[in-house]
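Reopening: structure tokens for the pyridoxal-5'-phosphate complex, inputs below.
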Amino acid sequence: MGPGPSLTYPEVYEAMARPTLGHLDPYFIEIMDGIKEMLQAVFRTKHSLTIPVSGTGSAGMETVLVNLIEPGDPVLIIINGVFGKRQLDIAQRLGAEADALEFTWGKPVDPDTVAQSLKNRKYKIVSMVHAETSTGVCNPAEEVGELVASRGDGAFYLLDTVTSLGGMEVDVDGWKVDAVYSGTQKCLSCPPGLAPVSFSQRAVDSIMNRRTKVPNWYLDMSMVANYWAGKKRAYHHTAPINMLYGLYQALYLVLDEGLEKVYRRHTRAHEHLVEGLEKLGMSMVVEPPYRLPMLNAVRIPEGIDDAEARKRLRYEHNIEIGGGLGDFAGKVWRIGLMGNTARPEHVDRLLKALKAII
Ligand SMILES: Cc1ncc(COP(=O)(O)O)c(C=O)c1O
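Re-run output (same inputs, fresh job):
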């Protein structure tokens, strides 16, 4: 019940234990095609370059930035937590002229302030985190997408959906997102190890027409795409076969339950948790309309030792929750209700344990 990894589905473990096929085996290629199709459904996109990158969520972040940024590109990074800062770090390493637009941690991004920044400078890329795992805030992904598109100056909109994908609405096409990435270990309830990404045709065209080579061989989409698409699949790197079995199964389970039902299950578990925490006298960090269902940031009660309480939860009750990150370290707990973890019985068990400890 921390900020990820979540409880892996038993069926995903089973899938991962199946015999390892060759990475160009025709049956494995069928599995890859199934994954692409299911990822399009979960991301709600028709983008044909929709694939899992080998690596965790950070590999997804690095993939979208390293493929779209060239040295000197003007980039706007919208930041209200740890993961926005990480995007800025990567953009700066790539030689972008990166402007950071910072908001208070625990509060959502304000679209009016974003609109003002977009008037002040023409950007090639505007990037934001949808679900800020460090604070539990949901950012206005749709509004910012609308703002970027309405400028009409061709800027690319990049979105981090590592924590939101599979747990709440993500609508890549509807929100006009050009490059999006996620991870397997949160609401998809698959172990960490893959990073689903998706690029619009406009973004793909820009990658194919770069002035400079993508400065990262492993994550260069112009080469990786040849393994994932087309009639003749070309070797790039050996795919993590069994991880991909796991992702196939996880996506299958999410779509079999139905996206709307899955989102509702997350919302219900979140409401049940908040009600219970408030009964225990605890207060949430984020205002209700901006709370993420899958990442609940709660203030640590006065007089409770953060590390000691989490240690007792782990060893006496077998439950893991997360501590605060960055500015929130020592002040906040982060309780994950992600994917297979988002169930009332898990919430009840945690509330009972917290009551005993407090
Ligand atoms: C919003 C967000 N972005 C990126 C990442 C990085 O993902 P990973 O730790 O899987 O590399 C995380 C991880 O928690 C995250 O929550």
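The domain at 10-256 is CATH 3.40.640.10 (Aspartate Aminotransferase; domain 2). The pocket of pyridoxal-5'-phosphate is lined by residues 3-4, 56-58, 61, 83, 129, 133, 160, 162-163, 183, 185, 192 (CB under 6 Å). Marking as resolved unless the reporter disagrees.
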